[in-house]
Model the fold of this input.
Amino acid sequence: MAFFGNQFTDVVEWEEFREDMIFYKWANKEVKKGSRLIIRPGQDAIFLNNGKIEGIFEDDGEYDIESEIVPFLSTLKGFRFGFNSGMRVEVLFVNTKEFVVRWGTQNPINIPAPGLPGGMPIRANGTFQFRVNDYVNLIDKIAGVRTSYMVEDVKIRITAVLDQLLMKWIPKEGKDMFNLQANAHDIAKGIQDDLDMQIMDDGMKITGFQIMSFNYPKEIQDMINKNASHGMVGDISRYQQLSVADAMDKSTGSNTASDMAGMMMGMNIAKEMMDDQKESSNGDSSSGKETAESGTRSESGGGKGPNFCPNCGQKVDGAKFCPNCGQKLS
Done:
């Protein structure tokens, strides 16, 4: 008797467990007398009969199917194993962990932007997380017709709609098109809610969505970097010096008209700045001279010559002519 009992013994388990597999359906549909069920950590076992859930077992461990599983099955709890007969049933193993998936736009996405008729081409990348949360929908929509389901299957479905969602939420939540990272959290939250609606009916839930970075075309990124460096200068004269140096660096080893134009523009701006500073300085000198002359006239009105020459500033001690420049003092 023991010999025949052993030959019919089966182990119902997820033999080739994979971290990137969402569920696995046990291939042998007939459970024999004396069979054991093994549930490993991070797995749930679902017994199915004609596509309907008979029982869900969540605690990991090893169980005798006849004595510890069958009594808890919905419509099969009165089933009795015969000597040569088994119970025809499907066992679906579900990976209960939260899956983390990296995503990235394959092509630039043209986001509407002021002053750019064709839009601003932007790439983005990040991660999203999901998990199985509804076994009924999972079985009705996917597991009923498939023996396994991979994370890559979900990724393909998500990335198929991700470009449209980025085009929807970037203009809505991106306050500054040249600094989208500052609003990445709000953009990601809107996308997460929409993605969750996409896979909700399949028994899964998006538990997180993150945008790690936005990538601009090189020309636009160079402009952003340059603007940021100039914004850190603060001193306008220093800003002009940087502009001249930047233009001269670009012209080194190049004879293009655009490089020369940039250099000339920087030099002209610097010249205008120097002229403005010179005019300001002359204005201060004229004001000082008028004050000195006023003081001289005031002193002359008292019948005494000035102590200093109003022309060159030489000390004259009341003389009528300046001994230094010959300026008449009275």
